Amino acid sequence: MGTMRSWPMTQRLVDVVYVHPCHFPACLLYMNARKNLLCEKPFSTNSGELIASARKNNVFLMEAMWTRFFPASREISRILSQGELGEVKVARAEFGVPSMHVPRSVEKELGGGALMNIGVYCVQFALMVFDGERPETIQASGFCLDSGVDEAMVVTLTFSRNRIAVCICSVAAQLPNEAVIVGTKGSIKIPANMWCPTALVVNGKEEEYPLPQPSLPLNFVNSTGLRYEAEEVRQCLLKGLKESSRMSLSDSALLMEIMDEARRQVGVLYSQDIQ
Predict the structure, then answer these.
(1) What is the model's pTM?
(2) How many whole angstroms separate alpha carbon 181 and alpha carbon 11?
(3) CB neighbours of 266 closer than 8 A, spacing ≥ 6?
(4) Quick one: which of 71, 63, 81, 74 has its CA closest to 251?
(5) Among 47, 97, 110, 180, which residue carries the largest CB count within 10 Å?
């Protein structure tokens, strides 16, 4: 069968599309073609339009926040939901890796900056811990490179009932890359690397959550963990769902809203911010 004749069949067999670069235009293209979508984090600053397009076209849309689907992350949510730590009072997460040599870390045209590239993992962690609650205040401080994107940033979120989250990110410094959750009855420490966790220390006791061994070399640490978000998408599609309850569209919208405000306070503006 020739290429031209096989194209319609191939088109029908596409269940879901995974978009990594050029999020916004590519996402709109596929959703307007009625394709379900897994969009690499973070959603663009046009997140509201992406979500509206998904609903208009009646397609599945999920932000590819792979961290949330790791077994260790699911265990964190179980511990918190059952109140084993009491009331959570403090959450802290840090992600810093020297990557000034990587264009997408430092070039504004590529959506560079510490917050958008790696700090997003810390902010989503805080929202996961506090179950998607909207923070009462957002305070950000940091400094920018000559290219106009942030080299480092600290984002502090305060929540109701005197609860707080601190998120630290840097593309110039190697940080411990750990996270911690402290409640009135105990704590959880997430050792490095907190964005793709394979162990938890709960009240001083460590438990491991090993990943499947890769069959091929990996470009990034713990990349076999990408299978968990893929399986989440599969299960959602099998159930006829249009979004994931684990990483809902409202979660993504709030995450982007917080990061937009943090960038505004530090003075990081992308072209789409001023259109």
Answers:
(1) 0.93
(2) 45
(3) 115, 140, 141, 142, 143, 144, 150, 153
(4) 63
(5) 47
Residue 43: its pLDDT value, please? 85
Tokens of 113: 């900056």
Mean pLDDT of 119-139: 98
Q: How many CB atoms lie within 10 A of CB 130?
A: 20
- pLDDT per residue over 131-175, tens digit each? 999 999 999 999 999 999 999 999 999 999 999 999 999 999 999
Of 82, 77, 65, 162, whose CA–CA distance to 128 is shortest? Answer: 77
